[in-house]
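Query structure, 267 C-alpha cells:
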C-alpha cells in the first residue's frame, strides 16, 4: 500500500495547487490513499465545510487538523457531518468532531489520527503520548495499519514520538512548523518517520504569510494583518510504502513539487 501525505495546505494558493495537481500526482506515484492536513486551508487559519468537501472531491481521502482547527466560525457545528475529517485526538473530550479516521482501500483499513504537542501550543490538550497509547489499543482490531500525525512545534517532542511508536504504527509524520525536514527514514522497528512534512502553499513567504508585515512585526512588535503570500507555491509531503501484512513501513520518501512544474504532471 502506498500512502501519500501532504503537509498543511495554506490558503487558496495551497488549495488550488492541491486540487490541480492531485489527480496527476496520485497516478504518477501510484498512491492508494491520500491524507492531507487542512488546518490552514481557509485563508491560512482553519477550514470550513465547503473547503473540506472540495478537497475531498478532488482526491484527498482523509483530512487532518491541528491547533487552528476552530479558527473558522461555525466549523465546530459542521465537523461532525464530515466523516473524512478528524480533529486532533487529544483535544478535550468535550470537543466535537472525530478523533480518528479509518480510510479503507481494497480491503485495507488505514487508521489516521493526530496528536497535538505540548510545547508552545496555545490550545489545551491532553498528553499526546498517553493518548497515542490508548488510541492504538482501541484501533488494534479495527485497522491493518495506522499513521500518527504529531502536530507540534518542538522537534524533540516529534522525534520522541517517532521512537515511542516505532514498530507500532506505519508512519509518524510531523506537521505544524510548515518547514520540511530532511530527516525522513524508516526507524529500526518499521515505522516511517519525518519531523515535518512541510506545508503545501507559498514558499516565498514566512510560513505561508506575506513577508513584509511579518518582518515589520519582528522589528517594531506592533500587530498587523498577515495576508497569505502567493509566490513559489509548492506541494510538500511524503510517500510511504506499507507492507499489507505487517502494517509497517518499508520505505519513505519526501515529496516536494513546485507549482511551476505541475503542468508536466498533468500531461
Ligand atoms: Fe499549520
Ligand atoms: Fe498548526
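Result returned for the query:
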Amino acid at each position: 500500500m502506498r500512502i501519500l501525505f501532504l503537509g498543511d495546505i495554506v490558503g487558496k494558493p495551497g488549495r488550488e495547487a492541491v486540487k490541480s495537481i492531485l489527480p496527476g500526482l496520485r497516478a504518477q506515484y501510484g498512491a492508494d490513499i491520500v491524507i492531507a492536513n487542512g488546518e490552514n486551508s481557509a485563508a491560512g487559519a482553519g477550514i470550513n465545510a465547503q473547503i473540506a468537501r472540495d478537497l475531498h472531491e478532488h482526491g484527498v481521502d482523509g483530512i487532518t487538523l491541528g491547533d487552528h482547527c476552530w479558527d473558522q466560525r461555525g466549523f465546530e457545528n459542521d465537523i461532525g457531518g464530515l466523516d473524512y475529517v478528524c480533529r486532533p485526538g487529544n483535544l478535550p473530550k468535550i470537543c466535537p468532531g472525530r478523533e480518528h479516521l479509518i480510510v479503507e482501500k481494497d480491503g485495507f483499513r488505514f487508521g489516521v489520527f493526530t496528536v497535538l504537542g505540548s510545547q508552545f501550543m496555545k490550545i489545551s490538550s491532553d498528553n499526546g503520548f498517553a493518548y497515542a497509547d490508548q488510541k492504538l489499543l482501541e484501533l488494534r482490531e479495527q485497522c491493518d495499519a495506522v499513521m500518527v500525525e504529531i502536530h507540534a512545534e518542538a522537534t524533540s517532542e516529534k522525534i520522541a514520538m517517532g521512537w515511542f511508536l516505532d514498530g507500532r504504527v506505519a508512519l509518524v509524520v510531523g506537521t505544524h512548523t510548515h518547514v520540511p525536514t530532511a530527516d525522513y527514514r524508516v526507524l529500526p522497528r518499521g515505522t516511517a518517520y519525518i519531523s515535518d512534512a512541510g506545508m503545501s502553499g507559498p514558499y516565498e513567504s514566512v510560513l505561508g504569510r506575506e513577508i513584509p508585515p511579518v518582518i515589520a512585526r519582528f522589528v517594531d512588535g506592533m500587530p498587523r494583518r498577515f495576508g497569505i503570500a502567493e509566490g513559489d507555491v509548492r506541494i510538500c509531503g511524503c510517500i510511504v510504502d506499507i507492507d499489507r501484512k505487517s502494517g509497517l513501513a518499508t520505505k519513505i520518501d519526501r515529496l516536494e513539487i513546485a507549482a511551476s512544474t505541475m503542468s508536466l504532471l498533468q500531461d
